[in-house]
Amino acid sequence: MLRYLPFLLILALWIYAFVDCLNTPEDEVRGLPKLAWVFVILLFGEVLVGPVAWIMAGRPRAAAGPRSYGRRGANKERRWVAPDDNPEFLRSLKPDDKGDGGPAS
Fold first, then answer.
1. Alpha-carbon distance 13 to 49, whole Å?
2. Among 4, 58, 86, 99, who pairs with 54 as Cys (CB 3.0-4.6 Å)?
3. Could you read off the pLDDT of 60-95 as tens digits, one per residue?
4. What whole-number distance in Å separates Cα of residue 94 and Cα of residue 85?
5. What is the 8-class DSSP label of residue 62?
6. Alpha-carbon distance 94 to 97, whole Å?
7. Whether 91 contacts 53, CB under 8 Å
8. Taking all residues of the chain, what is their mean pLDDT, rounded to a whole number?
9. 58, 25 in Cβ contact below 8 A?
10. 5, 2, 3, 7: which is closest to 48 by C-alpha?
11. Containing H/E element for 42?
12. Distance CA 36, CA 56 (A)
């Protein structure tokens, strides 16, 4: 069973690099065009050169500052807000003014 572990780890890294490359937008890829990176990963995947090269040189770097959740640098920053600090949530808790004054019977 353990003799298959290196093969499975190489296969997992190969698949991860390939899917990551395909899901990365074209304008964020570094070094080579995206199609070239796909071929490098596929051709040199068995010897780990392709996937490691993608992770080290082709993959976009993570931003050091606050994350933007929109595409191409949207300025609106989204943060998680606790329910008791979220005005939209607090408004949803207020009872409707329908005159019944309480929960339905």
1. 11
2. 58
3. 776 555 554 445 444 455 677 787 777 888 888 877
4. 15
5. P
6. 9
7. no
8. 78
9. no
10. 7
11. helix 34-43
12. 15
- What is the predicted pLDDT for the residue at 100? 55
With vertex at residue 36, the alpha carbon angle to CA 33 and CA 40, rounded to the nearest 5 degrees, is 140
d(CA 105, CA 99): 14
Interatomic CA distance for residues 96 and 93, integer angstroms: 9
Residue 92: both structure tokens together: 């949803």
User: Among candidates 80, 54, 86, 55, which has minimal Cα distance to 67?
Assistant: 80
Task: Give the pair of three-digit tokens for residue 53.
Answer: 């090269």
Q: Name the residue type at position 69.
A: Y
- Degrees (nearest 5) of the Cα angle 60, 62, 66? 140
Rg (CA), the chain: 24
**What is the 8-class DSSP label of residue 41?**
H
Hey, CA dihedral for 4, 9, 12, 18, is it positive or negative?
A: negative
Q: What is the length of the chain?
A: 105
Please give the structure tokens belonging to residue 54: 């993608």
Task: Extract the tokens encoding 41.
Answer: 């990963």
